[in-house]
Amino acid sequence: MLIIKKHLEWGETDPAQIVFYPNYFRWFDAAGHELFKYLGIPLKKLMETENIILPILNVSAKFIKPLKYDDDFEIRPYISKINEKTIEITYEVYKDNVLHATGSEIRGWVNQNGEKLKLINIDEKFIKILNKKD
Questions:
Q1: Share of the chain above pLDDT 90, in %
Q2: Rounded distance, CA 64 to CA 21, Å?
Q3: Number of C-alpha atoms within 13 angstroms, CB side, residue 45?
Q4: Hey, how many other C-beta atoms are within 10 angstroms of the C-beta on 37?
Q5: Whole-angstrom Cα distance, residue 33 to residue 7?
Q6: Domains: count for the chain
Q7: Which of 46, 78, 95, 126 matches a 20 to 30 Å C-alpha distance to 55?
Q8: What CATH number is associated with residue 24?
Q9: pLDDT by residue (tens digit) across 93-117?
Q10: Which residues contact 118 (CB under 8 A, 6 or more apart)?
């Protein structure tokens, strides 16, 4: 399982020194890119070699316990669901092995041919990679 270690900086907090919630979505996006690199299919390479992009179709988060300024924490991303044309990525945020937040993104498997975008079926070779479990 991929574990991304983070440190909550002053500029990522609100006046109460609690993480400012939009930062979760920024972290989730970055963690999703790291997940694809970890699986051996970096999104940039997927774009360049296969003309595939993965736009976000839906995103959500649930905040369980606040993170505060100067906290060390981890983000654990994983592929939680694969459909014909979409992938769901789940994110779990832990501090000291205690769950503080969860999130998810649904990303479309989209062929980009010039300016034309088309949601397409995920090729079997990628389904095998995306189903890889640690």
A1: 93
A2: 12
A3: 9
A4: 14
A5: 19
A6: 1
A7: 95
A8: 3.10.129.10
A9: 999 999 999 999 999 999 998 788 9
A10: 110, 111
DSSP the chain: ---EEEE--GGGB-TTSBBPTHHHHHHHHHHHHHHHHHTT--HHHHHHHH-EE--EEEEEEEE-S--BTT-EEEEEEEEEEE-SSEEEEEEEEEETTEEEEEEEEEEE-EEEETTEEEE-PPPHHHHHHHT---
pTM of the model: 0.94
Alpha-carbon distances, residue 96 vs 31, 44, 50, 87, 93 (angstroms): 19, 33, 40, 29, 10
Domain span at 10: 4-130
Query: Which residues, listed in sequence order, are joined to residue 34 by a DSSP beta bridge?
Result: none
What tokens does 83 get? 């459909």
Could you tell me which of 90, 105, 111, 127 has the C-alpha nearest to residue 46?
A: 111
**Strand pairing partners for 128?**
none
- What is the Cα–Cα distance from 22 to 11, expressed in whole angstroms? 12
